[in-house]
Specification:
This protein is mainly alpha-helical. The chain has a domain of about 90 residues: Alpha-Beta Plaits (2-Layer Sandwich). Helix content is about 65%, strand content about 5%. The protein has 17 helices and six strands. The chain has a four-stranded antiparallel beta sheet, covered by helices on one side. The protein has a two-stranded parallel ribbon with strand order 1-2. A hairpin with a 2-residue loop joins strand 4 and strand 5. The chain is elongated, with a radius of gyration of 29 Å. The two termini are about 55 Å apart.
């Protein structure tokens, strides 16, 4: 990731406990069990080679019960002095300073969604399964990073041991020379000091890598020295097929996430277009992320996405607080419930966007780091060929070898972070490979099931969404946002979503050949509204919309129109206007 540093084990496993923050949940679910955490006893022995699926299987199997109990205590902790904003601050402050801010955004949104669901659903069976699946997913993500760290450490420990023996021998020779002669030349003394510094750094690497091996043992209940870790790339969408867009993953989330099924049972059936429209309406500054379908590939986009995620999480947690303070069953309570579900839908779609961006970010960072590695390797190879190199070149070679280890470690970490972000993207899109029944089985069976879920089930899920989206209108770009300072102008002007409502039916013209369903300030809003309308009104589904650009008083407007027979258009407008939507027959 950008400015990514190595995460400590506690920070990685904070995914399991969501930063160890406590939550005030009013008077709900007071009867929380207080027994001690149950860790796995008598884990299955293992030998031979373990791939990352096996690591995920063991991590989830032997820690899910404890992690679920821990998460339940934090979600339902009775602490009247802890406000939702303090919870978010606890999560943000627990992150490593140089970690990507989007990781923090991802964790904040994850906590906010879990917290909201716990306040929207009273069924203990539903919540038990929900929290268990969430805990298993967090453990699987943590296992990916721990597996990669241990695999890299296992390889590098041997290399560092050889390097230390070589450099220690050189240092000892200079020490013996000093003992014989009583002193060293300025060049020899300079070289010895640099050798000692390098040896100290190598010892630090040894300690760090040994800790990585211990962390693997703690999470999987197996000694790394007793097995061989498989380090080959395992990512299902290895090249991250660009045909799988953010919109496809968001559509999959609406179709497959339990939270949307819960909303359908209690409040309403959400559509992606409706949720996007609500986000643009409630968070005007997010328009900078939704201009003509253009994505800003720089820090402005990342900061805007981070701000969007935090704003949505803030509002979700605050609206949950209002729900807690309302009398159950009252009109105010029902209104608060609808608001929380609206916020929850926005948070889930933003989770998808954040995870997608993290994967893209990792791809770019990995390529840049690999180019730097190639440059350093070339320099090392050249210097190693030098005959009787001067002291400064020897010191340069030593420093380059240390730098190479650091860069290789960074590449391994970026690969792990990418894999974590990609798995979180799958989970956020609705892939749910874990269950209590599955994790009660043998670890080998769990690993096989995970491999099938992350391959066949995932592809089937995304393919079903892709087929559904093929008939939808294709977004176009008018090019107006390609000029200098366009983003700043958009933010300065603010956002106005034009959706006039009519209180009376629009007179139907007998000769009308087109119906205008709305006029908008940008193309994306027109597309989003069409998706919303076509999902609500069946008569629209057989029509192909046309979005036509017009200039009115020097400003661009996008008119959403459909063409057809007069009688058919009159019937459509009748339905729309009776539900207080705009429809003009022409």
């Amino acid at each position: 990731m950008k400015n990514s540093g190595k995460l400590k084990f506690g920070a990685v496993l904070a995914l399991m406990a969501l930063a160890a923050c406590s939550v005030d949940n009013g008077s709900k679910n007071n009867d929380i069990k207080t027994d001690t955490l149950v860790f796995a006893s008598n884990p299955e022995p293992v030998k031979g080679k373990l791939d990352v699926y096996a690591t995920m299987a063991r991590a989830a199997k032997y820690n899910a019960d404890a992690a679920t109990q821990n998460l339940s205590k934090k979600i339902y902790n009775q602490n009247p002095n802890l406000k939702p904003q303090e919870i978010i601050n606890n999560i943000k402050s627990s992150d490593v300073n140089d970690q990507s801010r989007l990781f923090a955004a991802s964790r904040v949104l994850e906590f906010a969604t879990i917290y909201a669901v716990a306040n929207l659903e009273n069924s203990s069976q539903f919540m038990d399964n929900y929290l268990y699946n969430k805990s298993a997913q967090h453990l699987a993500s943590a296992a990916i990073r721990v597996h990669q760290d241990a695999w890299f450490a296992d390889r590098k420990l041997k290399e560092i041991a050889r390097m230390m023996r070589t450099e220690q021998k050189k240092s000892d020779e200079l020490k013996n020379k000093m003992n014989r002669n009583g002193s060293l030349s300025a060049e020899d003394l300079k070289y010895k000091k640099n050798l000692d510094v390098a040896l100290l750094k190598l010892r630090e690497f040894q300690q760090s890598f040994a800790m990585n091996m211990a962390e693997y043992e703690q999470l999987t209940k197996v000694l790394p020295k007793e097995i061989r870790l498989e380090g080959r790339r395992f990512y299902e969408l290895e090249d991250f097929d660009k045909n799988y867009t953010i919109e496809i993953f968001q559509e999959a989330a609406v179709r497959n996430r339990n939270e949307f099924a819960l909303a359908k049972a209690k409040v309403k059936n959400y559509g992606v277009g409706e949720v996007r429209h609500n986000v643009l309406r409630d968070y005007p500054l997010t328009r900078r992320l939704d201009v003509n379908g253009l994505k800003v590939e720089n820090d402005i986009y990342e900061q805007a996405l981070y701000d969007k995620a935090m704003s949505i999480a803030d509002k979700l947690l605050n609206d949950v607080r209002q729900l807690q303070e309302s009398k159950p069953g009252s009109e105010a309570w029902r209104a608060s419930q609808r608001t929380v579900f609206d916020d929850l839908a926005a948070a889930i779609l933003t989770q998808v966007e954040v995870s997608y961006r993290l994967v893209e970010q990792a791809d770019a960072d990995y390529d840049a780091n690999e180019r730097e590695i190639a440059k350093v390797r070339k320099a090392v190879k050249k210097q190693e060929k030098a005959y009787r190199a001067p002291v400064d070149e020897k010191i340069s070679l030593l420093n380059d070898k240390i730098s190479l280890i650091i860069l290789e470690q960074k590449s391994a970490q970026i690969k792990a972070e990418r894999a974590m972000a990609l798995r979180n993207l799958y989970f956020n899109a609705g892939l749910s490979p874990f269950s209590k029944t599955l994790l009660r089985g043998k670890t080998n069976d769990i690993a096989v099931s995970l491999r099938e879920a992350f391959n066949r089930h995932l592809v089937e899920m995304l393919s079903a969404v892709t087929m559904q989206m093929k008939a939808r209108p294709v977004m176009e770009q008018s090019g107006w946002a390609s000029g200098d300072n366009w983003l700043e102008e958009v933010v300065k002007e603010g956002y106005k979503y034009r959706r006039p409502q009519s209180s009376s039916r629009t007179p139907a013209s007998k000769n009308a050949r087109l119906a205008q369903l709305g006029s908008y300030e940008n193309y994306n809003s027109a597309v989003a509204d069409w998706k919303n309308l076509s999902s609500r009104f069946g008569l629209l589904k057989k029509h192909q919309p046309k979005i036509e650009e017009a200039v009115v008083n020097g400003r661009n407007w996008y008119r959403l129109r459909i063409y057809g027979q007069p009688a058919e258009l009159a019937e459509i407008c009748g339905q729309l206007t009776s539900n207080r939507f705009e429809c003009l027959l022409q």
